[in-house]
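Support case: user asked for a sample of complex input and structure output to validate their parser. Sending the pair below.
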Amino acid sequence: MFNPPLYQAFQAKGALSIDEYFRLAMYHPEHGYYAQHIPIGQDADYVTSPEISQVFGELIGLWCIDTWQKLGSPSKIALVELGPGRGTLMRDLLRVSNLVPAFAKALSIHLIEASALLKQIQSKKIYPITPTWHYDLTSLPDLPCLIIANEFFDALPHKQYQTYQGQWFERMVTLNDHELIWTLAPDPTDLDIPVKEGSFTEVPQEGSQILHQLSTHLSRNTGACLIIDYGTSAHPWYGDTFQALHHHKKCSPLASPGTCDLTFHVNFHHLEQQFHQKKIHVEPVVSQAHFLKSLGIEHRTAQLQHMPQAALASYRLISAQHMGQLFKVLGASSPHISLLGFA
Ligand code: SAH
């Protein structure tokens, strides 16, 4: 059988909600995707912006220096990364931090990572700097903070709902004759989204919990946060973006749980709302192209002429055909400071 804990869960419950299915497929300590796979890299399932170009992490490093200065150059600041992957963004960011020694000296590094395999890679990548790993944001130190999350919120469990006869029903997965198939919960769910026949919607259930921790931490300690991901600001949001990637190719999210990477598009409207509820200032969400261009990607790329791939890599980050438009950037701060990259 494909995945023993999933099989047992289907035996016990009949059907699983999408977030339950996602958790077992991705996070099970023995059979989950993260326990067995290193997801990011040319020879893995997908690549991310920091793996495409060093310029990505460097520009975020400049953003951090600027934000630290706008926060009054505190003598201690926690630099927090959610889901640091192979640690590449952090390595490139830390290289740039040395341009301003007082900033580099103020930093303590905090990483929030679910994968034991990736923790080992992160540790080697940023050596000799020693980070502190956390399970979630509740154990972060009470210090001013800079929080970075690139392609993190897309990797969290979501719930999905589907319309059926004028009502929303939670979408579920069940096992039918050795094959996984979609089904619906027996009872309807009340959602704050108008019913549109034949449509889906998604609720970032775990992302909301993490954002609650994040905004609580920001408002208590002061600081700023940068969330970069693929997604939409459309509201209300209708769509089914649950997808699986295996060796850079899309496949059905039900095809092979535990061996494919599973993700959803991020609902930026939802993130903004949550910050607003905590009275945290949010800059208008911009495209990745807008953000990186206003931080000077073209100028930095021109300096790297000796590296033959640099121009093509930067093009992938900002062109509309690649990551430039689908990827969005949200900046939030408490107290309100004017963050670089959004004007
Ligand atoms: N930011 C990196 C990696 C993005 S992939 C980059 O840009 O390359 C998603 C990352 O989030 C991985 O490091 C993954 O292990 C981590 N992750 C996924 N779910 C998580 C969770 N619930 N808690 C902490 N880390 C998680």
